[in-house]
Amino acid sequence: MELDGDFNAGYGSVLTTEKTVEMEASVMDGKTLKAGCVTGVVDIMHPITAARKVMEKTPHNFLGFHGANNFVRQQGFEILKPDALVTDQALDALENWKEEQKTGITKFAKTEIGHRKDERGDTVGAVAIDQYGNIAVATSTGGITGKLPGRIGDTPVLGGGTYCDNRYGGVSTTGHGETIMKACLAHDIVKRIDYLGEDAQTATETACKNMTDRFLGTGGAITIDSKGKVGISFTSRRMVSKQLERYEQKIIKI
């Protein structure tokens, strides 16, 4: 999905106010609780792979900006030409955002998730479980249209955009990052499964609703619990629900 210009991750990432691309991603292993996170990554096609390299090749959880970009070069990533990730759709979205800012229409970044080319909120995420009950989660994004250079969203923040633990479940979120971070949405969902014994769907629905009720900003999450049950919920106007429903039926035992 990082290769698909219809998604806000990798190629197709949204733009900062300076018309630049700053990407972020995270991955977490529910068995070991090891994780890798990157932010401020530029000029590479697959930031999720960079996050995995952080997890596998360093003693750290999180690398950002100058350090992260030096690291990916050292790991032999193909470095793209400047502006290679800037798409016409992202440029149009930035101009539309600027016009809305002038009129005061936009308070929060748009988080409507789908394929309409005028709505660039499509962070991508994945949750998976194998036949041994090992859970993995990954999330990748370009952030929000019109963000200031240097802004960090929820995606690379463990407990915000990504969290998993084999004992309970795994979650990947998308939406208004500032809101999701305040709610610790991914961690909240996992802990609802843990402490309250809720199933994946109930925990996801309740946590998303509580977040928007409390902070107004919208978002969504996909969850898989330790029993392989899937939860899908969002408080934005829409999400790629048809695709998610199809993926829900394709839990593959490895």
Question: Quick summary of this structure?
Answer:
With 254 residues, this protein is α+β, with helices and mostly antiparallel strands. The protein has helices at residues 47-57, 65-74, 88-103, 177-183, 185-196, 200-215, 241-248, and strands at 23-29, 35-41, 62-64, 124-129, 135-141, 162-165, 169-175, 219-225, 230-234.
Helix content: 25-40%
Class per helix and strand makeup: alpha+beta
Regarding quaternary structure, what we see is single chain
Rounded mean pLDDT score: 89
Number of helices: 7
Name the beta content range: 15-25%
Instruction: Indicate the radius of gyration in whole angstroms.
Output: 17 Å
Count of β-strands: 9
- N→C terminal distance: 21 Å
Element order, helices and strands?
A: EEHEHHEEEEHHHEEH
Major β-sheet annotation? 5 strands, mixed
Strand order of the largest sheet: 3-2-1-5-4
Extract low-pLDDT stretches: 111-120, 241-254
- Principal-axis shape: globular
Can you characterise this structure?
With 254 residues, the chain is of the alpha+beta class. 31% of the residues lie in helices and 21% in strands. The protein contains seven helices and nine strands. The strands form two sheets. A five-stranded mixed β-sheet has the order 3-2-1-5-4. The longest helix has 16 residues, at 88-103. It is globular and about 45 Å long. It starts with 22 loop residues before the first strand and ends in a 6-residue tail after the last helix. The relative contact order is 0.15.
